[in-house]
Amino acid sequence: MTTARDREDGLAALRAEIVACRACPRLVAWRERVAREKVARFAAETYWGRPLPGFGDPDARVLIVGLAPAAHGGNRTGRVFTGDRSGDFLWAALHATGFADRAVSERADDGLTLRGVHVAAAVRCAPPANKPTTDERDRCLPYLRRELVLLGRVRVIVPLGAFAWEATVRVLAGAGWTTSPKPRFGHGAEAAVGPFTLLGTYHPSQQNTFTGRLTAAMFERIFERARELAG
After folding, report:
1. Which residue stretches of 78-182 are H helix?
2. Ramachandran category for residue 104: left, alpha or beta (phi over 0 → left; psi -120 to 50 → alpha)
3. Region of 224 on the Ramachandran plot (φ > 0 left; ψ -120 to 50 alpha; else beta)
4. Cβ atoms of residues 70 and 206 within 8 Å
């Protein structure tokens, strides 16, 4: 039987492997260029400039899957969804629904604690224009597959946006869990796949939050539903 210590040790080993990855030349070049050239508002900061492992509770029953790190967010701070507007929206929703101990997180060392939830990404390096290629996605997906296995207790997966939804469906199919017809993405969409429930939501990008396509209330309802489904 897998223990909490086994999960923590396995996740630590996976984190080290992810951080050292240089499998995608285009992504390596971009993430390192951004970290070297920076932007004016963060010119005094030392950027992380490497792939990002997942973050959260090793006993999580809910797994959140994002698209990829932001160039001046996670690629700068060294933690997924930390230091960018999408992360601001996510942490506020997780705090409002009892998954996080604070509503704001701007640094990887700020002590943020997640309870019952783990956050990962389909692609672990910041991509140019926030658009990884399908080859880059598929090269990175084994990390997500292994992370899901190591977490062990996850029962609900919340992909943020269509790209993360498709990546998650591919991961589950690769593990032998499929449905027919193929689950279709939508905000609030639910699909049972193997032992998991997929719960879709629009990505908390500024394109969605500034236009009102995704509101704080809508996002919070997703995580309230995730808690219900996780049991």
Report:
1. 85-96, 134-151, 162-174
2. beta
3. alpha
4. no
Structural element, H or E, at residue 36: helix 25-37
CATH fit for domain 4-230, picks 3.40.470.10, 3.40.50.620, 1.20.58.760, 3.40.50.1260: 3.40.470.10
pLDDT in tens, 180-193: 889 999 999 999 99
Structural contact between residues 90 and 70, judged by C-beta atoms closer than 8 angstroms: no
DSSP 44-92: TSPP--S----EE-TT-SEEEEES---TTTHHHHSSTT-SSHHHHHHHH
Closest listed residue to residue 65, CA positions, set 120, 2, 115, 21: 120
pLDDT above 70: residue 98: yes
Contact in structure between 205 and 86 (CB atoms under 8 Å)? yes
Contacts of 108 (CB under 8 A, 6+ apart): 48, 77, 78, 79, 82
State the pTM of this model: 0.96
